[in-house]
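Can't paste images in this forum, so I'm doing it all in text. The chain is below; anyone willing to post the predicted structure tokens underneath?
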Amino acid sequence: MKEFALFNDSFSITKTNTYHLSIRIGQLGYSYCIIDTVRKKCVAIKNINFNKVDDNITFFNNVQDLLKNDSFLNKFYKSIDFIYHSPKATLVPNALFNRKYLKTYFQFNQVLDDYEEIHYNKLEKTPAVNIFSIPSEITTLMVNQFPESRFFHQASIFIENTLRHAANKKNMVSVMANDDFFDIAVTESGNLFLYNNFTYQNENDFVYHIMNVYHQLKISPKEIGIYISGDISSEDKRYRLLSKFIGNVHLVNIADNSDCEYGFEEIPEHFFANLLNVMK
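Text version of the structure:
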């Protein structure tokens, strides 16, 4: 995603105590939106990219710098949601969940690095818990900067938004695209049937993994379309290639799920689907 910082004419730096801040941070950068909770309108959006790094120290320094130097992240807000962005997460059904075994659940299909700590979100629209990891130093930075913030994983919000969207649909496939991995969810009669995420290197990988889900679940790409949000556009190679195999490819309309008015024509609203829908 390109870098940008846009502010609505109604934005007021003196009214942040009536605003809500949703901020997403991951290895490749950060985004946030600021919502006027009185008017229920998004009044600011921003995205800044990081250079891709493999070491935790550089990532920590990147986050520390942004929290220190971004003046809009040094204000008091009415409420704050922090979304950690990574492919490391696992779902556990409520019937099997016991908080004492968080580490065991997570390590069943993920690697817990020495510098990471485990968090979890209880999902509201499906009987499951999403367990995920965050580098402990990032957690400390966020708690120090925003003591009252709620912590989420991007998959938690993606799944909840997908289920809201699927409420009146028999079957649906939903994808949230990122630069190096994507989340995918399949619903059946309004219920979550599958969630997974895949890393990829190019548009061919991206489309292969999606079409393999269609194939494995015996879903007809001519009959069941796909709803996409995140870092992708209709001009993107991933989108154009996917359109050759699936009859209907839709970019998510935030108004389908959100009570918040978006209002920025310069940036497609599906880029901010997770950030604008987290505040419920």
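The first strand starts at residue 4 and ends at 7. The domain at 165-254 is CATH 3.30.420.260 (Nucleotidyltransferase; domain 5).
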